[in-house]
Amino acid sequence: AQKITQTQPGMFVQEKEAVTLDCTYDTSDQSYGLFWYKQPSSGEMIFLIYQGSYDEQNATEGRYSLNFQKARKSANLVISASQLGDSAMYFCAMREGNQGGKLIFGQGTELSVKP
Amino acid sequence: GAVVSQHPSWVICKSGTSVKIECRSLDFQATTMFWYRQFPKQSLMLMATSNEGSKATYEQGVEKDKFLINHASLTLSTLTVTSAHPEDSSFYICSAKRLAGSSYNEQFFGPGTRLTVL
After folding, report:
1. Do A91 and B49 make contact, defined as CB atoms within 8 angstroms?
2. Is the separation of the CB atoms in B79 and B72 below 8 Å?
3. How far apart are the C-alpha atoms of B1 and B82, rounded to whole Å?
4. Among A101-105, A107-111, B92-96, which stretch is predicted with the lowest mean pLDDT?
5. Contacts of B16 (CB under 8 A, 6+ apart)
6. CA distance B112 to chain A (A)
7. How far apart are CA B5 and CA B33, in angstroms?
8. Contact in structure between A40 and A46 (CB atoms under 8 Å)
């Protein structure tokens, strides 16, 4: 079974608008971490935001916020005020508490920002 | 801080040859390094977990005799693709887990190596 699911292969958003990228996860661990990474065409993985399973508040980092709904096992990324430079692949990832730190990635969502 | 480098950034080789990719943590010590493979338009798939001074742990379906991993020091791990074939052409990315520090963002990615096997 997929542990991390991103159901949107591609998304379009108008410049300056907000966009939500979906991510659901599956784990039986109580302690886990959820990450979002951006991968531009150059291939580098850029860390965006982190949410711990015990964090009560949704994580925010500048224009990025994570809508964490634990009961629904979802961790959607919200990008506000989209910029042309936000066009890239976005990956959701999970680190389970007892797995030595390895990350499991979702399939990714390709975001295109239109001028 | 927390910079990870990979060398080479791209390599083209003939079928049947071996290729070594290096992953270095430049400004921190890494207890663990991870190797991922990514095919075009696909996700990152974990190949193996490399711990300094011990044998690597390979994910199911990854041939350990084909993808040799050595983690000789706290700052260097190498991945050798032996007897490479065109189907091994891919983007290989490493990440390094910092030895010390309590930051949740304890894993840092290298820039990747694009391997093309002719």
Report:
1. no
2. no
3. 33
4. A101-105
5. B83, B84, B85
6. 7
7. 12
8. yes
Rounded Cα–Cα distance for residues B43 and A87 (Å): 17
- pLDDT of B107 reads 83
Chain A nearest CA to B80, separation (Å): 20
**Overall average pLDDT of the A71-100 stretch:** 93
- Residue A113 has a pLDDT of 98
Q: In the predicted model, is pLDDT for residue A73 greater than 70? A: yes
Asked if the Cβ–Cβ distance from A43 to B97 is below 8 Å, we say no
Instruction: Classify the phi-psi angles of A71: left when phi > 0, otherwise alpha if psi is within -120 to 50, otherwise beta.
Output: alpha
DSSP codes of every residue in B22-54: EEEESSS-EEEEEEEEE-TTS-EEEEEEEETTS
CB A109 within 8 A of CB A8: yes
Contact A52 B91 (CB under 8 A): no
- Does the pLDDT of residue B102 top 60, yes or no? no
Residue B100 has pLDDT above 90, yes or no: no
